[in-house]
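Exercise 3.2. Students should predict the tertiary structure of the chain below and write it as structure tokens, then compare their answer with the key that follows.

Predict this chain's 3D structure.
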Amino acid sequence: MRHGESKGNLDYSAYTTTPDHQIPLTDSGQAQARDAGAKLRNLISTSSSTNSWRVYFYVSPYTRTRSTLRELGRVFTKKRIIGVREECRIREQDFGNFQVEERMRVIKQTRERFGRFFYRFPEGESAADVFDRVSSFLESLWRDIDMNRLHHDPSHDLNLIIISHGLTARVFLMKWFKWTVEQFERLNNLGNCEFQVIQLGGRWRIQLSNSSHRGENARMGT
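Answer key:
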């Protein structure tokens, strides 16, 4: 899930005066998060095989993602939430020095010419760098599940909710579905507070559905 609308989404010049990790949500972004929380709760409750479902949150440490979690978390009762973990590996891509707005605009135009995946921002990261840390996070995630480090009752349906950023979410899906660099280059960011649902059914079947109900479902399996 991507965070709600931030002041940086509305006005790019916000990055010239406020560190990226401290950019806050707008009032609209907070409302988006509450609405997304209600949608997630309803989706989970209707698709769960029992009424004993639980949720566990992973969240980027940035202000806008933590605020998104705070707002959407209000719709879940305490008994439904078994844990929250702040995870630095799902933070936003580091774009380097944001203080000079025109310089950043030129640099982003250069990235479009040379490719969005491998181009590394001066003093920052490339999407390939983000891929490496997201890959590490996914390996840890599977270990947490396999070793029951989330401490959930096996009789409960467990739902993991990851609150992150636009590019990081794209890289996550790229790693999960083993998409190529060329496929990644054709992807666009999720909208603010838009989420994708990955459902595991049977042994290998994976279903990907979209929160905006565009009918863009992808089924993968053996």
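Discussion points: Residues 27-47 form the longest helix (21 residues). The first strand starts at residue 54 and ends at 59.
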